[in-house]
């Protein structure tokens, strides 16, 4: 796996052994060295990312296999021009039986977009969202190591659990796209059973997961805190822990959830929310969010700890036509055509922007 670590100019820490670097991390003042902590938002505590002073490096703690994240970052560097931190070392965490790891990466001096956005001019905001759209287009065009295996990858063809967003602590691993689609259908069916068991007379209907769009490489944790503006005004994408192969509209999910939240502390600035369809684009992502996935997590939460008989309706002798899904969650042709027209306009804006903004 070490071949995934990026080649780069020598660092002052290169001469340190893993044990010496680990000792340096353990001896840091973690309260003073934390990166990206926002007390109003981080109610569960600061992110486990620390600046290794005096070096331009950070140590990020991960509690699970780090090689899918390392592979995702290597893959992005190989196939796109998106600025991302380089991973220089992966060190096992010697605490708690050695179950965790430390990723040693570049320290990006700057601000996350959530902090920077209110201070940007409207023209600079337009430049940023155009840049983000071009980044997402590059990601979605990048080749997949295993085109029909959804979720994270380490490049070996193995399947790994899908993490984050509506997958929460993990689902799968799924060996095929169809298996991931079936998982979504099964979660909706479990909710359907739960409602009926609780006395709801009319059987709740759901639509089957749409497999018509191909899997593409997605960041899958795209929100304003994972977008950085450095001191030279370059736009960076960070935190690739959830990245993997998904339908393109999955890219919208973390952004859409912050648009729809009832808690104003966690909601996107309205002036940024206007642009998220433009940023993701090309796949009717807002439609899929509003009509399929937006309430999915809430439905899962309602029965997460309940045992539910998946053959409930069969045992009840209820006609399958009353509970089996009759359609697929897919936008109409007219909706798709309108989206394509918007994308033509959007991509024209990217070209116009390129005429005024040097690369």
Automatic annotation (TrEMBL):
Transmembrane segments: 235-252, 272-289
GO MF assignments: kinase activity
UniProtKB keywords: Kinase, Membrane, Transferase, Transmembrane, Transmembrane helix
InterPro entries assigned to the protein according to its UniProt record, in alphabetical order: AGP_Transferase (IPR051678), Aminoglycoside_PTrfase (IPR002575), Kinase-like_dom_sf (IPR011009)
Pfam families: APH
Residue span(s) of domain Aminoglycoside phosphotransferase: 69-256
The protein's name in its UniProt record: Kinase-like protein
